[in-house]
Structures are given as structure tokens and as C-alpha cells.
Design goal:
413 residues; alpha+beta; Rossmann fold; OB fold (Dihydrolipoamide Acetyltransferase, E2P); six-stranded mixed sheet; five-stranded antiparallel sheet
Length: 413
């Protein structure tokens, strides 16, 4: 059983079905990426889990609690979930600290944020005394009262631990690297800083499930790469169970513990990043998560005859995928679709014992490596991923090999 279990879920807008019989099990403490093209139902899935959309069928269980099912539709705020949207969506009239603490309980007995300048805050020594409205109005006059620096609060996965609201804000501000910015307005933050505040705000109530809706899509590529790595590390350090929606293949494969690939409102494959990339259930999934080399071939006793010669191959028919590759292969002579990854191809000098296999016809340079196009006998073109130091020149003639088993699929899959 997963910490989050979605069983047979359906969502429709009027007569149009958007999600159809979606089932998913998310292990506790894992980061799962939902990957798919625009319009496939990723955000609808996230909103349905959050309780922002009604479902037409199925159940959703989180931590053993039924939150959606026949006759049950818990309100979003009672589901124990945190939400990180694509555009941060901070409250412009609140400071960074107030945004982080927005979802925390507010009581005079336990909330240090209600302490006014000069009052004694229980437990945290007036740590955030300047975050009340009255304090903001008197910030200049009482500046000397608000010079206590932020001190890192101990981080622990113990969700039952009870801390004051101000101490929790201090803990999270330090955790996301914004300890010196708690008094700033959102308009004074960079895009990456604003997204950190959004993450801290979602983490503040210690949710049972974190939902992240393409949170890095609006950032520039360099910042996006750095921030997503930091966020994934932070979520794991906090032992959070998280569901990340993205259409970025690199993001999903590099960050997630498990990847769910969606198309047309259905989950086509769920597995580890390596499983999804190296053993895709069909050529469409293979092409969506990475570059492919696809050839026509004929199955012959565990091998495929194709434009690259006779290659050892794994049968990837529907039954084989469902049974872990143990199902019987097709009869010899069956036409199949052969699939390889460009990095599975190897280059060598032309053999003196046989005709040269291929001629280099184009190079798509990417700095660290390149996709190199080769033309085989008969005009067939294939692409290999080659490290930059080993790049051939256009016109060079080489022999091509394959470093691991090809994947064979039924025609029409």
C-alpha cells in the first residue's frame, strides 16, 4: 500500500472526460514526478487530489484517510496537503515571514507573531516581534527592538512536535536560505527567492502530501536547474511525500524517485526514472522521455534483423511489459519496431574486413556532447550521442555498433 493511493479516479468537465480510470500508489517519503505533454491532464490530476475539483469516479486515500470517495469529499484545507503553484502567488501586502506563516494557526496564547514591540514573546525571545501590523507601522521608531538575528531552528521529521508559530517561521526561513529577508516585501524578491517563500509556506503546516504544479517553469534555465535540485534535496531532508507535475523530461528523470507518464488523461507507465527511460512501455513513451533511434526489423530467435545488422533484443510487447519481460516472444519472422537510445550506439574506425557501415552527415553540437547523424547503406539515417572529445567530422566514415540490447515492440504500438 502507498502512502497516497489513487484508485480508478475519473474527472470530467461537463461531457468531456479529462481523467479516465487513473490509479497511482505513492510510497511514503518519495518524490513522484507526473510527466506529460500540455493538455494531458497533469494539473487536473493535481487539483483533484487537492480537492479543488470534484471527481466522477474512484477514491483518493492519504495516510490511511479517505479524502475522496463515494459520499466523501473533504475540503481542501482539511486534507493535510501543501500546494506550490507555478508562479509563487505570494500575498503582496505581507512580508516574507508573514507569507511563510500564513497557513499556521493564529492564537494569542501560542502565536508569538501577536507580540507587539516591547512585549515578551513566549519561547522565542521576540524573534519576529516586528511582523505585526502595528510593528510594521512603527518599524523605524522601534528599530532597536528588532535586531535579534535569526537563529537556525533544529530540523526534525517529527510531525507531532509542537512549536510556536514564530519559531516555525524562523525554522523555515533558515531552511530555504531566506533568514535575512523575512521583513522584505515580495516585490523586493527575485523569482527564485519568491519560489522559495512559496515552498516554505507550503511546508509550514507539515503537510502529509506536497503538491507542486510546475513550480520552476517560469524561471530562467540556469536558475531553474539550481533551484529544482535544492528543492528536491530539501523535500527529502524533511521526509516529505511529494507529487511534482512537469512537462520537462530532464526535470522528472533527474529529481524524482518515481515517474508517472501521462497522455490523454491516462497514466501509461509508472516506475523508476531508469525503468521509464530504459524500458518504456511503448515507442510513444520512449520518444517523449528522450531521443530515440527507431528502425523496422524482423524478430529472429531473440534477435532483430534491421538496418544496423542482427542485434540482440528484448521483447517489449504488452504482456512482456506487464510480466517483467517474462512473456513469450513473437514467432520468428514477425515484423517488429526496433528502438534504441542514441547513446547506445558506439563508433569505431572502419573495418578492413567489411564495407564501412556509415557516413557522418550532420552534427547537432550541445557543448558536452552532440547528436551525430549517420547515413547507412540504402539511405537510412540514424543518430548517435557522442561525447564532445570523440566527435567525428562531417564526411567521416565509421562503423556503428550497439552497446546493449535493442528493444522490440509490436508494429502499431
Amino acid at each position: 500500500m502507498g502512502w497516497v493511493t489513487i484508485q480508478g479516479m475519473g474527472v470530467a468537465y461537463g461531457d468531456s472526460r479529462v481523467l479516465d480510470d487513473v490509479s497511482l500508489r505513492i510510497p511514503r517519503g518519495s518524490l513522484v514526478a507526473v510527466l506529460g505533454p500540455s493538455g494531458c491532464g497533469k494539473t487536473t490530476l493535481l487539483r483533484a487530489i487537492a480537492g479543488l475539483l470534484p471527481v466522477t469516479a474512484g477514491t483518493i486515500t492519504v495516510g490511511g484517510r479517505l479524502v475522496t470517495g463515494p459520499g466523501v469529499q473533504r475540503a481542501p484545507e482539511k486534507r493535510g496537503m501543501g500546494w506550490v503553484p507555478q508562479d509563487a502567488s505570494l500575498f503582496p501586502h505581507l512580508t516574507v515571514g508573514e507569507n511563510i506563516g500564513f497557513g499556521l494557526p493564529r492564537t494569542r496564547q501560542s502565536d508569538d507573531l501577536y507580540c507587539e514591540p516591547g512585549e515578551t514573546a513566549g519561547g522565542v525571545g521576540g524573534l519576529f516581534a516586528g511582523l505585526t501590523r502595528r510593528a510594521r507601522a512603527n518599524r523605524t521608531r522601534h528599530a532597536s527592538l528588532h535586531t535579534t538575528p535569526l537563529a537556525p531552528a533544529p530540523i526534525t521529521p517529527d510531525r507531532s512536535r509542537r512549536t510556536s508559530r514564530a519559531a516555525r517561521i524562523a525554522e523555515l526561513a533558515t531552511l530555504v536560505g531566506l533568514a535575512e529577508l523575512v521583513d522584505r516585501a515580495p516585490s523586493q524578491l527575485s523569482g527564485g527567492q519568491a519560489q522559495r517563500v512559496s515552498l516554505a509556506r507550503a511546508l509550514a503546516p507539515r503537510p502529509d502530501l506536497m503538491l507542486l504544479d510546475e513550480p520552476f517553469a517560469a524561471l530562467d534555465p540556469l536558475l531553474r536547474s539550481a533551484l529544482r535540485t535544492e528543492v528536491a534535496a530539501l523535500l527529502r531532508s524533511q521526509h516529505n511525500t511529494s507529487l511534482l507535475v512537469t512537462h520537462d523530461q530532464e526535470e522528472a528523470l533527474s529529481l524524482a524517485d518515481f515517474v508517472a507518464v501521462m497522455r490523454g488523461g491516462e497514466i501509461l507507465q509508472f516506475g523508476s526514472p531508469a525503468d521509464v527511460y530504459e524500458r518504456p512501455v511503448d515507442p510513444w513513451v520512449a520518444g517523449f522521455v528522450g531521443d530515440t533511434v527507431e528502425l523496422d526489423g524482423v524478430w529472429q530467435g531473440g534477435r532483430v534483423a534491421c538496418g544496423l545488422g542482427s542485434l540482440p533484443a528484448d521483447w517489449m510487447g504488452a504482456r512482456a511489459v506487464n510480466d517483467g519481460g517474462a512473456a513469450s516472444a513473437p514467432a520468428d519472422g514477425t515484423s517488429v519496431r526496433v528502438l534504441l537510445r542514441p547513446e547506445w550506439l558506439t563508433l569505431s574506425a572502419p573495418s578492413t574486413e567489411r564495407q564501412t557501415d556509415a557516413a557522418t552527415t550532420a552534427i547537432a553540437y550541445a557543448g558536452h556532447d552532440a547528436l551525430v547523424s549517420f547515413t547507412l547503406a540504402g539511405g537510412l539515417v540514424v543518430r548517435a550521442r557522442v561525447a564532445a572529445p570523440d566527435l567525428p567530422r562531417v564526411g567521416d566514415r565509421l562503423s556503428l555498433g550497439v552497446r546493449q540490447n535493442a528493444l522490440a515492440y509490436p508494429l502499431g504500438s
